[in-house]
Amino acid sequence: MAPTGPDPEQGQNGNQLWPSRLARFRILAQPAVIVLTVRALGLLVTWVMCAANHRAFDIEAWDGHFYLGIADYGYSGFDPSVTYDSQGEYFPSAPMAFFPGYPLAVRLSGLYFGGHLLAAALTLSLATSIAAGYGVARLARHLGAGRRGQLVAVALTAGAPMSVVYAMPYPEALLVALAAWTLVAILEHRWVLAGLGAAAAGLTSPMAGPLIPVVMVAGLIHLFRVRTHRIAAVVAVAVAPLGMLGYLLWVSLVSGVPGGYFGITERAWGNHVDFGATTARWVLDTVTTSRDAFPVLTAAVIIAAVVATVRTRMPWPVWLYTAGTVALVVAHSGLIQDRVRLLLSAFPLLIVAAIRFSRWRGRTTVFAVSGVVLAGLWFGAHSLGVWPYSI
């Protein structure tokens, strides 16, 4: 007689296996769903803002044109009509201010899109923003967040002010993904991954600068304190700086500009280290005299980031990375209005905020987080639909 009990493949209660798998899949997919929902809502808000101001929704705006141009032509064949310095003079080395990691990834991805680089860039930005969401959730768990806190951290990161660039041909989504997973690798002592992540981030953006010494210091401390995985830690220390140092060396050799990369950014954008003097003057002037919403809110975000960094407690590698990022944003001169976009790299501050939000009642948390996310999406939409200058 055939057995009458449940199929072993169905578990103890007959048809329970598929529902349990579906439940696990739903839990696994939650960060991706949150990121995709916030991105869709952000694009809708931006489109409405642009339409209300009779302005075209240019998804390639500002630096997006540079990154797509580099992906298409490289540095030497870049469109000469946009290669100028801060004085309006022709400056063919200007595109070298943009690191090659993202445009190189766009170029390679374009092979799967029939050479349509914009489609490749937007797909890459979306995919890496999802990867960043999972990295943020994992890092939030290391910082003490429960499941709700992890999902709130994903939502706040996806909807941060200027997160609109996560849906544009910009490298921020890739950078945040690499930084988040590199910090996770440090905390989990996955040294080879930490070194490779820092090297890739260093090839993607100068904002990866604080991440590299964190990996190196953490690796060196491991070498002195722990007797296991020592070779992997040595690899991390050696590999972490290669991406950024390699690019900076290449620019110095190829451009012929005195000071290399730093000379290029100073001539093209007036950018140099002044230990925060320009930022402080601009913030003081903005909060006391400006009648425009965008500069005032930009100043408010900068102030909030500095205060939060000083007051926040995190594992030392995460705090050191965050403090270095905020310091790097504040300490240089040049364009001020792009500082909020650069502060996207200081996403651990949002994780700490998420942990605090998650301790409230469920409905209160939902309303508070929704309000913060909508405010962040409005900020990005305002930057493209209303603000007339570079972001």
List keywords for this structure.
0% strand, single chain, mainly alpha, 391 residues, 66% helix, globular
Tell me about this structure.
There is one protein chain. The protein is mostly helical. It has one domain (75-252, 273-385). It has helices at 17-52, 63-73, 101-109, 117-142, 147-158, 172-187, 191-202, 211-225, 230-239, 242-255, 260-269, 277-289, 293-311, 316-331, 339-342, 348-357, 362-385. Residues 1-12 have low confidence and may be disordered.
Structure summary:
66% of the residues lie in helices and 0% in strands. It is mostly helical and 391 residues long.
Uncertain runs: 1-12
Treating each run of at least 4 consecutive H or I residues as one helix, how many helices?
A: 17
Radius of gyration: 22 Å
Strand content: under 5%
Helix/strand/pairing class, anyone?
A: mainly alpha
Count the E strands. Answer: 0
Written as H for each helix and E for each strand, in order along the chain, the element string is: HHHHHHHHHHHHHHHHH
Total number of distinct structural domains? 1
User: What overall form do the CA principal axes indicate?
Assistant: globular
DSSP helix fraction: 55-70%
Termini distance? 75 Å
SSE blueprint and pairings:
Elements: H1 17-52, H2 63-73, H3 101-109, H4 117-142, H5 147-158, H6 172-187, H7 191-202, H8 211-225, H9 230-239, H10 242-255, H11 260-269, H12 277-289, H13 293-311, H14 316-331, H15 339-342, H16 348-357, H17 362-385
Helix pairs in contact: 1-4, 1-5, 1-17, 2-3, 3-4, 4-5, 4-6, 5-16, 6-7, 6-8, 7-8, 7-9, 7-10, 8-9, 8-14, 12-13, 13-14
